[in-house]
Amino acid sequence: MRYRLLGRTGLRVSQLFLGAMTYRESSPEVRRVFDLYADAGGNVVDTASMYGESENVVGELLQGRRDRFVLATKYTGSIDGTDPNAAGNHRKSLVRSLEQSLRRLRTDYVDLFWVHVWDRHTPDEETMRALDDAVSAGKVLYAGISDAPAWVASRANTLAEWRGWTPFAGLQVPYSLLSRDVERELLPMAQAYGMSVAAWGVLAQGVLSGRYNAPDAAASRRDPGSLTERERTAARAVVEVAAELGVTASQVAIAWVLRRGVHPILGASTVEQLKDNLAATGVELPGEAVRRLESAVGFELGFPGDFIDQVDRSPGIYGEAVDRLDGR
Fold first, then answer.
1. Is the pLDDT reported for residue 328 higher than 70?
2. Segments making up each domain of the chain, as ranges
3. What value does the CA radius of gyration of the chain take, rounded to a whole number of Å?
4. Is the peptide bond before 304 cis (omega within 30 degrees of 0)?
5. Cβ–Cβ under 8 Å, residues 168 and 143
6. Which phi-psi region, left, alpha or beta, contains residue 38 (left: φ > 0; alpha: ψ -120 to 50)?
7. Which residues form a coiled coil (predicted)?
8. Which fold has domain 3-324?
9. Residue 242 burial by CB count (10 A; 0-12/13-18/19+): exposed, middle or buried?
10. What is the per-residue pLDDT across 209-257, written as a single tens digit (0 to 9) for each?
11. Global pTM?
12. DSSP character at residue 77
């Protein structure tokens, strides 16, 4: 396992994150999965206040080794459906959710605290100041944002920069060969602000693992009969490349995300699944294979991305010396 820095911080985080959303109890298999991830050098475990018993399970699994992990959790989702203030990104919700998470996780602090989803009813200023107060109190070390428009994350980090508050060091988004929308605005924004990107859904509910390709495939997270032709085409391309490279389809799909400099969040529920997923770090995708994968279902940036790329070398826009300019 290799490591990268979290955003513009000195925190070392592993290439692959471990997602704990499905943890309902500390079963022997869950513990084996967790131990295998740790033994492989993984050090980031990701959960959330709204993932049922997940925080309690993670807290139990971390006993005796808390300091070796970068513990990440999230707030926004309701922790009491009868209370309108038990959800959202306002200060009261943040404080209440964080305190509950700390109790469940059996720790004094969270390494990475994510805003789970943009709450359009709470001013960005309130959220960023409340996060900075949590950092000042020593209960949170770093902050991140998940599932939000690029302009929201950008404005929030600009506010933090101007006012001396803690900025978002990480961005969490859905990303896979079948879901590349974030390439339009969110990934360029994260690069501009030096934010690390973590991706959920890298196997597209198992579609890119190839499990649904067989005529007699059993239903799992998806009913095989519900797959669209676009999904089937992408899955076939991944399976074909995997066969040529002598690896599994899941490893190819994860390796493609890693190649983009993004941290895949692994949601493996069994040791065998995790062993397979971890091996993706050793998969090198040839350029020709990448082109085949990306052209299988097609993707267009649309406006303004495609337009800006088109005019970037236009003498009519930038003058006759445009081809002699060495850009960043």
1. no
2. 3-324
3. 21
4. yes
5. yes
6. alpha
7. none
8. TIM Barrel (3.20.20)
9. buried
10. 988 877 667 667 777 778 899 999 999 999 999 999 999 999 999 999 9
11. 0.94
12. S
